């Protein structure tokens, strides 16, 4: 049960990423209305994309582990991990605090040109392309998602059940964006002021969280590598 509660927590963290929340926010601000078909197409595509990425990693995880199990036991590989861990700690601790951008700057940076006058099909296709691009670019850097895949893979349940859990995880990732879309659809312009107010803080906190994650993960990697190399004798940090 604890593992599944952890998965829910990880999925909610993932739900705050650029692809699952910031881009939907920017789309709504850009449209100044709810385009239900376009918004639904985007969210459906990104959920399916993350699910397919997870399936692909599931399929390859076994032979990747088998192929590199001997390599990871070598001293030179552990030294590389030690250096990588220290680098992540330095990045997380020494990086300057990110600047908080205005709503206009965020929208300009993340803006997607959706020209409804060009036809519905073109607009829907642009949503598919945007979602696929966001999923592919972000998947490699979303540590909670990668950690969740490892937890799901470790469960002693049939492979089909693992896929069901993965699908549910991806759906939970989209819940905040779905709730946002429903609120905009029901309340209309009354929610735009609050959306504009939260967007800069959301982006800022996401960047700060990334630095914390980098430092924590780096410290753990460096500490475990130092123990394996005989440089330290006390147990893992976590």
Which properties best describe this structure?
238 residues; mainly alpha; 10 helices
Tertiary shape? globular
Helix/strand/pairing category: mainly alpha
Averaged pLDDT, please? 75
Please give the number of β-strands: 0
Helix content: over 70%
Amino-to-carboxy terminus distance = 20 Å
**From N to C, what is the helix and strand string?**
HHHHHHHHHH
Largest sheet: none
Radius of gyration: 20 Å
Regions with pLDDT < 50 over 5+ consecutive residues?
112-121
Number of domains: 1
Helix count from the secondary structure assignment = 10
Description:
This protein has 238 residues and is mainly alpha-helical. The chain has one domain. 79% of the residues lie in helices and 0% in strands. It is built from 10 helices and no strands. It has helices spanning 2-14, 18-31, 36-72, 75-94, 103-110, 120-139, 143-154, 159-173, 175-187, 192-228. The model is unreliable at 112-121 (pLDDT under 50).
Write the layout of secondary structure elements.
Layout: H1 2-14, H2 18-31, H3 36-72, H4 75-94, H5 103-110, H6 120-139, H7 143-154, H8 159-173, H9 175-187, H10 192-228
Helix pairs in contact: 1-7, 1-8, 2-3, 2-9, 2-10, 3-6, 3-8, 3-9, 4-10
Quick structural gist:
The chain has 238 residues and is mainly α. Helix content is 79%, strand content 0%.
